[in-house]
Amino acid sequence: MAVSNITEVSNAVTIGNALSAIASPALVKSTCMMNLMYTENLPVGTNVKKFIKKGSLTAATLAESTAAAIDANGELTDSSITATAAKVFVMSGLSLEAETFTGLSVARLGEEAGAAIGRAVDVDALGMFDGFSTVVTASTVLTIDDVMLGQFNILNSNCHNPEVQLQCVVHPKAYYNIKKEMIQSGASAWANQTFLDVLGRNPQQNCYAGSIPGLADFYVTTGQATTGGDTIDGIFHPMWALAGIFASAPVVWVQRQGAGGFFTEVASAYLYDIIEWNDLAGVELDSDT
Amino acid sequence: MDPTRAEQLALAREEQRLKKEPFKTLITDGLREDTVNALRGWVPPPGAYILLERRKNFLQPDLSVRVGYGLQTINVEERPEQFERLRRQVRKGARVIHYANFPTLNDPNPSRAAKVRGHSGPMGRSPWDALEAEVKSLLGTNPNWKEEKAKIEAERNALEMKLQAAIIKKGSQNDKTDNRL
Q: Hey, which residues does A212 pair with through a beta bridge?
């Protein structure tokens, strides 16, 4: 039975809320793709930039005392892929009350808008994987052999700079299965510390999750496209598969709005475009969703 | 080598998926078997997208190549100005088979409507509308003509049968009249 007239917490004047010393970050994806492609600044005076693809000539044998003529083998034709810069944006408003009485600020909104733009660009880049013409479909889950098949196709396509380590961007599920394969495999390579970088490492904030020497650097992220039963990952050459034009930084406009309702409008926009520069310098890796 | 437990489960899941009805695309005529299988259990992305069917080279474990078909999704939710990317894929042989969820100025979701206003410029022209026009032109005026043709033929056959039945009925009535006379 409740006792009357006891002095309780509700009799006192207290602070409504106290805040923890740190705030948990938003659990949203990290970004990685912008560092894994060839990039240039936005062009000046136009939003279009052509990424050139060199053509080549073909040599032919010629018998002694035979006239040679200019033919198609000697016609040099370069081609190009067009990148057209367009914007992504985030529009926010911060009320006078929120700015005055809370810890939220215009700077914080700008910071979060930058992160959101980064994620949008990343998802756009991840969406390029299903544009590659060559596909390796894992029979069920992704295996190291599937990744090696991808590497084979890139090398077999005469992709330049084969000395550069390929980049393999995978979903956490594929990463799990690669790690599991390393643990369960009895192959001697996986008893060698040099080959166990992926197994022994945790993913970093830029998604880098380790390397398998002679094969690829691994990046783990989410946001990939899917087919019916597969998630679409990719292995590609960081110099020649994808390219992009990027503004040096997002544009942030801060406007005070009085008549509109006493708030500060924070408008952030970023201009960029990503293109598939060389189809054969990348391979789509499909594995179980 | 016997499949592991995880592989067994994955194979069972795949078997179940292949029993599902394919996702209904705007174009159904002439979809390749690979594409139809890829569409079984396919979950569309949450935002605006364009779906293409394209030829793909499936690399096999013995390093041979099987030429087949697959899906390609172009996500246009955040950035509608992707005409060049779409045209390039079509030039490479891809076929637009579906598009959906394009935001509009009067979108029921206010943040999507605001997004359209943000991309529309001072003249208020939504780039998604322009993209939709482009996509429609790539889909063709009547993409499912075989389906339409079959429907019209079925209707014609039904009408012809009805007509025949009416003629027969009228004929038998005339016979009866003749008998009376």
A: A216
